[in-house]
Design brief:
Strand content: 15-25%
Distance between the termini: 52 Å
Oligomer: single chain
Helix content: 10-25%
Order of helices and strands: HEHEE
Strand order of the largest sheet: 1-3-2
Number of helices: 2
Structural class: alpha+beta
Radius of gyration: 15 Å
Length: 73
């Protein structure tokens, strides 16, 4: 039978603060849970928005996703 927990630390799946530091980052399918880069791009955009940032995304010739966060305005 399921049991209620007092607390549980789910942690974070990705190093968002590092990946959204303003540098360009190449994200490969092996970096992403479920290997879905297009879904990951949406998640990255949401994480950037939570930090009051915008996000550039592009696919590179290798088919990987490149992300770069930048300040709004």
């Amino acid at each position: 039978m399921a049991q209620k927990l007092e607390n549980f630390d789910f942690g974070t799946q990705y190093p968002w603060d590092e990946w959204l530091d303003g540098d360009a980052w190449e994200i490969t399918p092996s970096d992403v849970i479920g290997d879905n880069l297009s879904r990951f791009a949406g998640t990255a955009r949401t994480q950037a928005k939570k930090r009051n940032l915008k996000l550039r995304t592009r696919s590179n010739p290798a088919g990987n996703l490149v992300i770069q966060a930048y300040a709004k305005g």
